[in-house]
Design goal:
The structure is a homodimer of 315-residue chains.
Chain A (H helix, E strand, L loop, with lengths): L1 H8 L13 E4 L1 H10 L8 E4 L10 H7 L4 H10 L5 E4 L3 H12 L9 E8 L2 E6 L9 H17 L6 E5 L10 H13 L6 E6 L3 H4 L5 E3 L2 H26 L3 H11 L5 E5 L4 E5 L5 H17 L1 H13 L2
Parallel strand pairs in A: 1-2, 3-10, 5-8, 6-7, 6-8
Antiparallel strand pairs in A: 4-5, 4-9, 9-10
Helix pairs in contact in A: 1-11, 4-5, 6-7, 6-12, 9-10
């Protein structure tokens, strides 16, 4: 993470990030030392001191409630005080989601926030939502995810995003109980809100992208699928590197994908731009998360999501 | 399908299949015509007449109950009468599963059969179970799938298969409600049956394969994940073919994977070898399904599964 911060803070660093005004949140003495080690003048960087990280073990909510100096709480505080336009976490996902809900609040019409990931499919960007924030969803929660995902896709420039429900094909009887109920609800409510609902889509549609621009699922299935896709891409890169006799181009595709908008999950349904990245992310991946937060703030993602949720709440 | 049958019935066809004694089940006049068109003498092929296929639409169970001449019923009848050692379906998955349960019966200790797919991971074959037979599973159903998957992996030659439960990583709180209960049950019951339970694994572990030889999940998640992996491999082949400037080697990997043991799902927990392939499979893929059924029959898969289930039922 220190490498990513050093690069983002250094005017000679990543030129695509030169317009981003970064605030580093964390133990200040450690941040200053790490920046110095990387040849960046710490006095040229805005550092907001925070006493402790959220531990990966235990219940994040109890840590957040017991202490007011946890990094995620301090970072969220900057956004809610309008001192920052968004924030990025690459630590504990549960802690980031909890801090965002507590500090920024949920948008009206959104009972649980969702993580949306932009998959660079063969046919264009596909928004997969939810990628791991909310397991054990209900049909109504999936309806909210559909609207928020649609708003995200619209913000990213897709003119009239097609929304699909992730299931397992018509021949098996159209999925499990949750999907059967959710399909009926989506088919009934989304068109009334001006959202194009294209019905059931399958696992391969996430990477192929020809059927839908937004693919809706619960956080358990979405997280398993996303990690399955990542594993399959690494599998392919390994096998193809061997077969072509040159591993480098295959590795480049894995790297480029990991540092695209795919790098970070956008937390939809909270009142402020929140990006959650991989805890074990490379400097390039963390820079990509910061660029994604910057982009969402500029595109007015929160307002767009608010509007999409309101369009349905009032129908 | 006719191309696959022609090749399997032709002594000069696929040499790897020369030891397989094939029976073709379906409308006999159509089968004879298709074989003739492909230059194979239909009199040299055993054809068992069956009046109708199971339609892809509607409830397969009601079709099977209303008619006794459906292809899947006739094929299963050959296995239950010991006139065949196994059977392959490349039609309606639900119809194949229903016909197998009705005609062959479930093994003791298995309340619902599961589809197991062998994924050629970087570290070796990984059995993913269930890949789509049983949605809305319970912890006890996942326990049964774990035992049956373990027996399948053992039959395939893995000495002491490691069994993992597919979930979404410790940091998110170890999965949804089903996974939390299932983990406790698997940790308690599998070691007592002599089965190595390695705990939670994630989506990427299916293609990477370093943590577990058998990965257990419900049929909804398994089917979504499997199709997601297939889509990601096609995505990779497309992207890498472009980058390397030669699409053929990438296509070969997709083809080879599709015609490995990955081609067919093995239905575990019924009293007879049953392989379910893609409805839209190529001739190569259908031949691979037939080879898989042959292999499972020779390796005594049903007996191994029976034993694994009994080991636990009696503890």
């Amino acid at each position: 993470m220190a490498d990513a911060i050093a690069r983002l803070c250094d005017p000679a660093g990543d030129p695509t990030d030169s317009s981003i005004d970064l605030i580093v949140v964390g133990p200040a003495s450690m941040a200053r030392r790490l920046l110095l080690e990387r040849g960046v003048d710490p006095d040229a960087v805005r550092i907001v001191d925070a006493g402790r990280g959220a531990s990966m073990a235990g219940n994040p909510l109890s840590t957040l409630r017991a202490h007011d100096d946890v990094t995620v709480t301090v970072a969220v505080g900057l956004v809610s005080a309008r001192l920052a336009d968004g924030w990025v976490s690459v630590g504990h996902t549960g802690a980031a989601v909890a801090a965002a809900v507590l500090g920024l609040g949920r948008l009206a019409g959104m009972s649980r926030p969702a993580l949306a990931v932009v998959v660079p499919s063969l046919a264009g960007p596909v928004v997969l939502v939810d990628a791991g924030a909310a397991t054990d969803a209900t049909p109504d929660v999936l309806r909210q995810f559909a609207l928020a995902g649609w708003a995200y896709s619209t913000s990213l420039g897709v003119a009239s995003p097609r929304v699909g429900l992730l299931t397992i094909g018509s021949e098996e009887g159209k999925g499990d109980r949750l999907r059967k109920s959710a399909h009926d609800l989506l088919a009934e409510t989304l068109p009334a809100a001006g959202v194009r609902y294209v019905g059931p889509v399958e696992g391969h549609d996430v990477a192929l992208g020809s059927l839908a621009d937004v693919i809706v699922t619960d956080g358990f299935t979405g997280n398993v699928l996303l990690k399955g896709i990542e594993g399959a891409v690494r599998w392919s890169a390994h096998r193809m590197g061997q077969l072509y006799g040159d591993a480098e181009p295959a590795r480049r595709i894995v790297r480029e994908t990991a540092t695209s908008e795919f790098a970070g999950g956008m937390l939809l349904g909270v009142n402020g731009v929140t990006v959650v990245g991989h805890g074990a992310g490379t400097a390039d991946e963390i820079c990509a998360c910061v660029r994604l937060a910057d982009k969402a703030a500029r595109l007015g993602l929160v307002t767009a999501t608010q509007r999409a949720l309101a369009a349905v709440s009032t129908t």
